[in-house]
């Protein structure tokens, strides 16, 4: 997107540092490295061992020099940015990306990775665990025909192509056996990855369309439309906000179910089990034998928590959802959060930069946010009463 030369002349150091960081952080996409490359083989071994032998996961090799990248990050002349708010923001950016590099370079190294993940993502609080347990007390809903997994990955791809026709952006769809989720967006390459051997239900297609495309793809392309590349690369601590918006999109489009909300609650319990020193078998036992979750779901949630050596990120889906839900019903504007990979904490700088002409209004919008199609009163009761 073209920006007036005058604006760059007014803020030369801001644009220079933003551009430098853009070149440096292209490879720092944690989700590209954190998913094991032998998920299916280890799952077969784990099931045949009667759930008694912890999986041994292998990971993609890092294709950058982590130490050199850290040096280049911290060599940026942040103090040359005249505006104090922007200067402090970019200082936070550097610390945040430095933490992500530490996470990536310790993937598969047990406690080393876990402690780095704690620094970058935190861990569930007692309140978060209490909220998860509150959700899990509710009686399961009846399964209807929309919940049966009958669609192949190819059929899912066709559904997502159709869903995207309301937007004028283009992205690639690829199939993979090396992702732990049913679908995920790769921000840097504008790619939607689908789990190749997964069967999707009609409800899950709606969930993923509103979650992955309605939020993650929309914020990817809004970010690419901004002059400052940090919108696309990601604000510090944006995970909780982005996942909260994505699940809220499921809620507003009327496809969030109690079953899905419980899945997010189980993720909190799995992340909390890391703090207690649980290994993979222990977490699986908690979910499968104590909570009576079926073995496929129990395995997938345990995998998400234990990948890398202990990845706590998943508790944030629920905390982020509560944050966005409360903000929406307090009539706070969600638009600044959709301008790119933005975080609640740094949303005010989006408005500031828009007023100064350094950022533009959003080109793409989440259609579900315009009309609340949720008709599930139980979900409303739960979300209102989370602490």
Question: What report would you give on this structure?
Answer:
The chain contains 18 helices and three strands. A three-stranded mixed β-sheet has the order 1-3-2, with helices on one face. The protein has one domain (5-385). The protein is mainly alpha-helical and 387 residues long. Helix 12 crosses helix 16 (316-329) and helix 13 packs antiparallel against helix 14 (280-290). It has helices spanning 5-10, 12-24, 31-34, 39-48, 66-74, 84-105, 111-121, 126-136, 153-163, 202-224, 230-233, 239-252, 258-275, 280-290, 295-306, 316-329, 347-355, 377-385, and strands at 172-176, 183-186, 191-195. The radius of gyration is 21 Å and the shape is globular. The model has no long low-confidence stretch (mean pLDDT 94).
Largest sheet at a glance?
3 strands, mixed
The CA-CA distance between the termini, in Å, is 42 Å
Task: Count helical runs.
Answer: 18
Envelope shape: globular
Topology:
Blueprint: H1 5-10, H2 12-24, H3 31-34, H4 39-48, H5 66-74, H6 84-105, H7 111-121, H8 126-136, H9 153-163, E1 172-176, E2 183-186, E3 191-195, H10 202-224, H11 230-233, H12 239-252, H13 258-275, H14 280-290, H15 295-306, H16 316-329, H17 347-355, H18 377-385
Parallel strand pairs: 1-3
Antiparallel strand pairs: 2-3
Helix pairs in contact: 5-6, 6-7, 8-13, 10-12, 12-16, 13-14, 13-15, 14-15
Key attributes of the depicted protein:
3-stranded mixed sheet, mainly alpha, 18 helices, 387 residues
């Amino acid at each position: 997107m073209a920006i007036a030369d005058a604006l760059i002349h007014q803020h030369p150091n801001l644009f220079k540092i933003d551009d430098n960081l853009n070149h440096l952080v292209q490879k720092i996409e944690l989700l590209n490295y954190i998913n094991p490359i032998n998920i299916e083989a280890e799952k077969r071994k784990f099931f045949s061992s009667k759930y008694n032998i912890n999986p041994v996961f292998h990971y993609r090799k890092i294709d950058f020099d982590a130490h050199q990248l850290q040096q280049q990050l911290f060599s940026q002349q942040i103090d040359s940015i005249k505006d104090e708010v922007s200067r402090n923001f970019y200082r936070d950016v550097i610390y945040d990306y430095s933490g992500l590099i530490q996470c990536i370079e310790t993937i598969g190294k047990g406690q080393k990775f876990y402690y780095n993940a704690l620094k970058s993502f935190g861990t569930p609080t007692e309140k978060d665990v209490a909220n998860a347990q509150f959700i899990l007390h509710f009686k399961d809903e009846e399964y209807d025909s929309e919940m049966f997994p009958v669609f192949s990955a190819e059929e899912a791809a066709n559904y997502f192509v159709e869903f995207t026709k309301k937007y004028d952006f283009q992205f690639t769809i690829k199939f993979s056996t090396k992702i732990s989720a049913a679908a995920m967006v790769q921000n840097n390459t504008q790619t939607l990855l689908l789990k190749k051997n997964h069967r999707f239900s009609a409800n899950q297609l709606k969930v993923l369309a509103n979650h992955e495309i309605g939020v993650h793809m929309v914020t990817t392309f809004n970010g690419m439309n901004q002059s400052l590349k940090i919108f696309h690369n990601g604000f510090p601590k944006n995970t909780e906000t982005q996942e909260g918006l994505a699940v809220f999109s499921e809620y507003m489009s009327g496809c969030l179910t109690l079953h899905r909300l419980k899945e997010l609650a189980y993720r909190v319990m799995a992340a909390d089990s890391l703090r207690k020193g649980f290994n993979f078998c222990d977490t699986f036992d908690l979910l499968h034998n104590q909570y009576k979750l079926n073995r496929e779901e129990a395995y997938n949630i345990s995998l998400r928590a234990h990948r890398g050596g202990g990845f706590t990120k998943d508790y944030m889906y629920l905390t982020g959802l509560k944050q966005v839900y409360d903000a929406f019903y307090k009539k706070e504007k969600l638009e600044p959060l959709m301008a790119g990979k933005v975080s609640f904490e740094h949303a005010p700088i989006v408005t500031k930069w828009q007023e100064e002409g350094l950022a533009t209004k959003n080109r793409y919008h989440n259609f579900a946010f315009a009309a609340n199609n949720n008709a599930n009163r139980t979900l409303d009761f739960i979300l209102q009463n989370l602490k």
